[in-house]
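User: I want to check something. If I give you two sequences, will you return the structure for each one separately, not as a complex?

Assistant: Yes, each is folded on its own. Here is the first sequence with its structure:
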Amino acid sequence: MRRRSAHAIFGGLALACAALALAQALRLDQAERMNTGLRAALEAPVDLARPVLPSSDDPVELRLARATALAAAGAHEAAFKAYSSVLRSAGPAADSALSRQALFNLGNLSLRQALAQGGDEALPLVELAKQRYRDLLRVAPEDWDARYNLERALRLAPELEEALAAEDDVPVERRQIMLRGMEPGDLP
């Protein structure tokens, strides 16, 4: 009787270990397929005339990698769409690491475009970058890179309230009013 129960316990433990090993093998295979897809997405050549957007069926990690490759190649519109796709797929879990990375990269993309354009055309892009950094800081206030980039964007295009407050600090120049028949030193 004892021998039978010992064999049953040993057999159960062996089955549990085999199931655990099978689950780990499946996770390893999935990770290897993901790494292969990420490598292909990052190394694929980008045709700037017709950039290939990642499919909505692709994993979020693969879409983020493809968006990063598009941004690095200079296909800004396609990268914007790919990053937006990552944010849409995150849905209510907007605090995931991938959505935070997408928000940060969207802000950087807008800020880089604004710096490249310069002038008045850059202001909407700077405002868009500031909004992306603020969205990220609402979710992850400890992100110092986003804080730094937001500060840089604020220096490029200060907020309206800040600009008005700075104008209030400047003393108002007194105007001389000239009335007919009166000299500047005369008192009424």
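And separately, the second sequence with its own structure:
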Amino acid sequence: MKEQLRTLLSATTGLPGSSITDDASLTHDLGLDSLDTVDLVLQMEDQFKISIPDEDYPKLKTVRSIYEYMQQKVTVAS
């Protein structure tokens, strides 16, 4: 799942996946704005077959926080 997430982030940011670290901030390090974040969330929902409520968006600040959030969502969905 982590590599799939890096691939999505790479496609969204245009950065190589190898340069996207776990501690990278979506806004400060990867340069995503609020619309980019919404687009990323929609892609994650589609790829991982989960639902991410709008009120959870603020939890998705770093690559690590997204990965941990996704692990919880996928575990709950199983």
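Because they were folded independently, the notes below concern the second chain alone. The longest helix spans residues 34-48. The chain has one domain: 1-76.
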